[in-house]
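Subject: design request, 133 residues
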């Protein structure tokens, strides 16, 4: 079973999702959701208007970041054993979000929906990004 948080207003473009593991893992789950929210808020502040999907899985030792407007399958994985604090995770996530945008030839900053709609796509409608060279 998955838990989804829907945000409204300025944060409505952030999707946070984590799966429940077991009742004894509630502390890890709370940590994962809090870190996911922190990352989502930071990405939205630095790159507003993009559709970010964040998932922190502390038991697996990773955080994943996707820009759903660009790719549901290609994103960025941060290994948590290389992260020293919550603020360091946020910093790494902001850099990861910028890297995702650059891979798809998108300027860092606010989303430009006209530009996003005009990006080259494959036969299935997936954005090509740096594969379109």
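Subject: RE: design request

Done. Sequence follows.
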């Amino acid at each position: 079973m998955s838990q989804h948080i829907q945000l409204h207003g300025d944060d409505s473009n952030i999707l946070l999702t984590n799966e429940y593991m077991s009742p004894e893992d509630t502390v890890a789950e709370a940590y994962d959701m809090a870190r996911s929210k922190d990352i989502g808020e930071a990405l939205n502040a630095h790159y507003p208007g993009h559709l970010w999907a964040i998932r922190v899985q502390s038991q697996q030792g990773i955080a994943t970041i996707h820009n759903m407007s660009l790719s549901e399958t290609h994103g960025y994985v941060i290994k948590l054993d290389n992260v020293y604090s919550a603020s360091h995770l946020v910093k790494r996530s902001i850099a990861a979000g910028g890297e995702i945008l650059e891979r798809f030839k998108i300027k860092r900053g606010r989303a430009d929906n006209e530009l996003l709609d005009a990006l080259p796509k494959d036969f299935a409608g997936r954005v090509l990004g740096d594969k379109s060279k």
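The chain has one domain: 2-132.
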